Amino acid sequence: MTDTDFGAVTENAAGALPAATDLSRVHAEIARLDAEILDAVNRRLALAQFAARTRVESGAPMVALGGETDVIRRYQDELGPRGSLLALELLRLARPPFSSTYRTR
């Protein structure tokens, strides 16, 4: 395993598991990627919420179902069947809580 190759973490070219020092580098890289993912998710949520507010203010439905279907399909195509679960969760996170979506009598 090289310093930049984290694609095959389970075994190196010789078939041995990474050494403990390699694992600490792998864990550090995972933590760095997690921070990037969280930052990207927060940016995505802000943009999706802005788009939903803009749609509602213009009289359109808050949710663009065709667009959401495209997102789910894109995640599933890239990540397989479980990708759709990730897409659905991202879409859910961007929506306001149910109680603030609809007025009650």
Please describe what this structure looks like.
- The protein is mainly α and about 100 residues long.
- The chain has a domain at about 25-95: Chorismate Mutase Domain, subunit A (Up-down Bundle), CATH 1.20.59.10.
- Helices cover about 70% and strands about 0% of the residues.
- It comes from Rhodococcus jostii (strain RHA1).
- GO terms for molecular function: chorismate mutase activity.
- This is Possible chorismate mutase.
Measured as a percent range, the helix fraction is: 55-70%
* Average predicted local confidence, pLDDT: 83
- The CATH class of the domain at 23-94 turns out to be Mainly Alpha
Low-confidence stretches: none
Continuous helix count: 4
Largest sheet: none
DSSP strand (E) fraction? under 5%
Q: Give the number of DSSP strands.
A: 0
Shape designation: elongated
Kindly report the CATH topology of the domain at 23-94.
Answer: Chorismate Mutase Domain, subunit A
Give the CA-CA distance, first to last residue. Answer: 62 Å
Order of helical and strand elements:
HHHH
What is the architecture of the domain at 23-94 at the second tier of CATH? Up-down Bundle
| Backbone structural class | mainly alpha
Radius of gyration: 20 Å
Tell me the name of the CATH homologous superfamily of the domain at 23-94.
Chorismate mutase
GO molecular function: chorismate mutase activity
Organism: Rhodococcus jostii (strain RHA1)
Protein name: Possible chorismate mutase
Domain Chorismate mutase: 28-78
